[in-house]
Design goal:
CATH class: Mainly Alpha
Radius of gyration: 20 Å
Number of domains: 1
Largest sheet: none
CATH topology: Na+/H+ antiporter like fold
CATH architecture: Up-down Bundle
Number of helices: 16
Order of helices and strands: HHHHHHHHHHHHHHHH
Protein name: Transmembrane protein
Keywords: Membrane, Transmembrane, Transmembrane helix
Strand content: under 5%
Shape: globular
Structural class: mainly alpha
Distance between the termini: 26 Å
Number of strands: 0
Pfam families: SBF_like
Length: 331
C-alpha cells in the first residue's frame, strides 16, 4: 500500500515548482521572459509531435468523431450538471456564495489545450485525437461558455473569440505541429530515435506551465483574496469534483468501448478547465468588483488538476512500460 502512495520524482519536482511559484513568483520582466520561454517549450513540444506522428495517425485523430463528442459532452454537459449540484447542495459554511458562483462558472469553461495534450503524450495516449479535442473544446468554449453562464446564472453580457486568441492558438499549437509534420520525412527518424528528448520536452513544458500559471495566481493575490475557511472548503470541493470527473470520464470511455490510448485522451481532455480562457471571459461577463472571487475557484482547481493529472499520467506511463516489458522471467 505504501508503495502505491509514494510520490515519484516528477510529482516531487512539480510540488517544488508550486512552492517556488508561491515564494518566488515570476513577475515583471522575468515573468514576461519566462512566459515567452513557456510558449517556446509548448511550441517545441507540438513541433516534435508533428515530426513523430505518421500521416495516418494524424488523420485518424482528426476524424475520431466519437471521441471528440464524448470530450465535448464531458466538458459542456457533465461538468455543468455537477456544478449545479454543488451549488445546490454544498452548505454555505463550506462554500460561501461568491465562491459558489465561481464553482458554477468553473463548470461552464472549456478544456485546457497545452496541459491536456502534454499529459496525454506523457501517459502514452492518442495525441492526435487529444490535439483536435482540446483545441476544439477551447475554441467552441469561448462562444459556448457565455451561453451556459447566461442560462445557468442569468448573467448579462457576452463573450466572443478575439482574433488575437485565434492567432495565438494557431501560432503556438497548429503552426509548429504542421511544420514538424511536413519535415517528418527528413527529421522523423531522428525524433523517433530520441524518445527521451520528447519526454523531456513533455515534462519541461508541464513544469513551465505550472510555474507561470501559479505565479500569475500568486501575483494577482491568490493568498490574500482567499479567506482561510473559503480556501479549505474550495480545496475539498475541487478535489472531490476532480475525482468524480476523472472516475466518470474513465468509466464512460470504457463503457463506450474505447481503447486505452483513446481512454487516456478522453480522461485528460475531458477533465480539465482552462484558466487561460476563464479569466478573460469572466472580465466580460461579470462586474469588475466580483471577478476576483469568481475566478478563485478556477485558479485553485487549475493547480490541483495539474498536480493530480501529472501523477495520473505517470501511473498510465508506468503501466504501459510494464506491459511493454512483458512478464519477468521466472527463476
Amino acid at each position: 500500500m505504501l508503495s502505491h502512495l509514494r510520490l515519484d520524482s516528477f510529482t516531487l519536482i512539480l510540488i517544488a515548482t508550486v512552492g517556488l511559484a508561491s515564494f518566488l513568483p515570476a513577475s515583471g520582466d522575468f515573468g514576461r521572459y519566462f512566459h515567452h520561454f513557456s510558449d517556446f517549450a509548448i511550441a517545441l513540444l507540438f513541433f516534435l509531435h508533428g515530426a513523430r506522428l505518421s500521416r495516418e495517425a494524424v488523420f485518424a485523430g482528426a476524424t475520431h468523431w466519437r471521441l471528440h463528442l464524448l470530450v465535448l459532452a464531458c466538458t459542456f454537459v457533465m461538468f455543468p450538471i455537477l456544478g449545479v449540484a454543488i451549488q445546490a447542495f454544498a452548505p454555505t459554511w463550506l462554500l460561501p456564495e461568491p465562491l459558489a458562483v465561481g464553482v458554477l462558472y468553473l463548470a461552464c469553461l472549456p478544456s485546457t489545450v497545452q496541459s491536456s495534450i502534454a499529459f496525454t503524450s506523457m501517459a502514452g495516449g492518442n495525441v492526435p485525437a487529444a490535439i483536435c479535442s482540446a483545441s476544439a473544446s477551447n475554441l467552441i468554449g469561448v462562444f459556448l461558455t457565455p451561453l451556459l453562464v447566461a442560462l445557468l446564472m442569468k448573467v448579462q453580457g457576452s463573450g466572443g473569440m478575439s482574433l488575437d486568441s485565434v492567432k495565438a492558438i494557431m501560432l503556438q499549437l497548429l503552426v509548429p505541429f504542421v511544420t514538424g509534420h511536413l519535415l517528418r520525412p527528413w527529421i522523423g527518424g531522428w525524433v523517433a530515435g530520441h524518445k527521451q528528448l520528447v519526454g523531456l520536452v513533455d515534462r519541461g513544458s508541464i513544469l513551465s506551465v505550472v510555474y507561470i500559471a501559479f505565479s500569475e495566481a500568486v501575483v494577482n493575490g491568490l493568498w490574500q483574496k482567499m479567506p482561510l475557511d473559503g480556501l479549505a472548503g474550495m480545496i475539498v470541493i475541487a478535489c472531490v469534483l476532480l475525482v468524480v470527473v476523472l472516475v466518470l470520464t474513465t468509466l464512460f470511455s470504457r463503457w463506450l468501448g474505447f481503447n486505452k490510448a483513446d481512454e487516456i485522451a478522453i480522461v485528460f481532455c475531458g477533465s480539465k478547465k482552462s484558466l487561460a480562457s476563464g479569466v478573460p471571459i469572466a472580465n466580460v461577463l461579470f462586474p469588475a468588483a466580483q471577478v476576483g472571487m469568481i475566478v478563485l475557484p478556477i485558479m485553485l482547481f487549475h493547480q490541483i488538476q495539474l498536480m493530480a493529472c501529472s501523477a495520473l499520467a505517470r501511473h498510465y506511463a508506468q503501466r504501459r512500460e510494464a506491459a511493454e516489458a512483458g512478464p519477468s522471467p521466472q527463476s
